[in-house]
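Consider this:
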Amino acid sequence: MQNFIAIIITAIALTACAGNKSAQAVSASAPEQPAPEVAFDADSAYAYVARQVAFGPRVPNTEAHRLCGDWLASELRRHGAEVTEQTADLKAFDGIVLHARNIFGQINPEASDRIPERFFRGVREQLLYHTFIRA
């Protein structure tokens, strides 16, 4: 019985290691496109972060929270993004209702390559930061 189990496990391992030959052939035939170079502008990134911090603590249900969200949405629009806002009322552990807001920006949503290089100048750094600190 142990020999039978060993044979089954070996057969499964060998077939799993064979891989998908058609997927390998496709990836080998398609030339890889180099990623576009995007220059990081530290001054621009700092200015965006400084502007966001200037609103003060962005605690839900505060004026700073609302104003910062409005500013972020306007910055996305200024850079040509189509802005969608998602709002929700969430109940905190202490029973307080928190007015949450997610802000999404899309540039040319119909295209497969949607992020033009000009969008990365400063806004990208702010958006990456904002992904973790909601407006």
